[in-house]
Amino acid sequence: MIKLFSVKEKAKKESAEAAVTGKKKSSAGELRIQKDISELNLAPGFSIEFPNGTDDLLHFEITLKPTEGYYTGGTFLFGFEISDNYPHDAPKVKCLTRNVFHPNIDLEGNICLNILREDWKPVLSINSVMYGLNFLFLDPNPEDPLNKDAAKMLRDNPRQFEQVVRNGIRRGW
Amino acid sequence: MSSGNNNNEVAMAQPPSRFEDVLHVLKRPGALAGDGFDADSGDDVMEMMQDSISLLVIGAGGLGCELLKDLALLGFQNMTVVDMDTIDVSNLNRQFLFRPADVGKPKAVVAAEKVNSRVQGCRVTPKHARVEELSLDFYRQFHVWVLGLDSVEARSYVNSVACSLLEYDEDGNVDPSSIKPMVDGGTEGFKGHARVIYPGMTPCFQCTLWLFPPQTKYPLCTLAETPRTAAHCIEYAHLIAWPRDRPDDEFDADNPEHMLWMFEQASSRAATFGIPGVTPQLTSGVVKNIIPAIASTNAIVASMCATEVLKIVTMCLRGMDNYTMYMGGYGVYTHVASYERDPQCIVCGAGIAIKTRADSTLASFRDALTSDSGGDGALPTDLRGKVTSPSISHGSSNLYMAHGPLEPLTRANLSKSLRELLFAEADMECERRTVTLMLNDKALAAPVRLRVTVE
Ligand SMILES: [Zn+2]
Fold it and tell me: Where does the THIF-type NAD/FAD binding fold domain lie (chain B) (predicted)?
């Protein structure tokens, strides 16, 4: 590699030249999420809010109003947290709507969705996560339960499951 | 004073310099020396190492202790060591600068004191801080940065700082005086790596992020319903039990009470499912995602790194190009790989030089980028055909998002001038400034950096 330091210049004592450093350096995660958001296609039923304004894309909330399946008519809010290491790290997503009765969501709002954990890949994007969430509400999966009771009911008594979900939606999830 | 007795004669004989061995290397020509190496000025080079070069050592843990010792004994005398941690009793087996009496004190402070007291002339300055807390001006004062870190996040951050210090000439060539060479070491059990990064010239940390596989993540439903291993029970306590039972406490892996709680939760869950193997060590290993550190791996990797620092500063040998992996688990295996830069790297790319005027509106600036006729304000021909509807950000400010939910929220910026959008009141008098903007477009696989000179 190149010679950077030489005896003659005495490795010039770095003058603290008053370079105006300007804006805080954006993290790689921030640069990538700008790309994701600039290309976001909100599928029907989805909306997005940036609670801290348009300059903080690392925290946002996505609302899903399913138009098909058991959860039609409900409104479900998800909190997204993007780390500085995104997309190396998956976004952290929680269901903020409380007490949702769903086999793959527990009562604290944790979501069992493979692409949010074991199957996350940096080529995925916020669009992919929204597809995943949409699918989870269209086709709840009793085989990978996070809420055992919901999974068991969906498997053993789908009519009753449907009723419980309907009641929940009526109560205003 | 009498000079006749034997004791005095012994004292007056010139002892060999502490750095005699380093001088042998610096004063000897050779076919493998780096560009511009001059064996005849070996003494001056030694003096430069001691007097004018200052090193930044990031991390004073297992690697950091080794690095400081190696660099000090090579003759580097001006060093600053940064570490945010305090000494834990479990560090003492390998972080050899620390003693039982130091437990609880900042690693950086104790490491600096120990090296300064053992190596005459050495002046290590401690900085007990997180890498994110230090200013660009702080980083700028050092000639070479040596990284002994254990997290991808911290490396990524330091890398982005080094890349943000780069300056370019009109043709987009990097100004060598703005390059901060980095030597990065890392260990994981019996494995390790040492690498050399010249930001802007050789692959940066981000270019080769794929070298760090994402940590293993277990499906949440496995953790919740069908745990099979001790790690599953610990991850359950960490990811599910903590937020459920202590929603108002921010979990801190360095807080002993928090770790004890985690261990107890994991143990009781393991008992429920009849799973053996949950220990406090494994709990902290899983929660902090760490693999037990091996002292000899640290020593080997640190010595590779310190040697590279010597090469970079003195050019006594051609440096490592650019990544060495070390596997010590089954015998000893090393391999040097010459990785390449990612031409689309969003952190170290030079970007495209664009000229514009402070009174242009964002809309006209944006139109000029894709203008068919080209010119100063236009993207290069290959991009002009592809980019049709660019989104533009300045740092965290999203000036205009051409698609999606932010389009209506940023549309008003199109009619504002660049002066208004990019410069604070105080800067408006400057005649000419360069700002970095990021451009996104659906047709591009990655954001493109624009180095915009505003006149
Ligand atoms: Zn890069």
Answer: 42-321
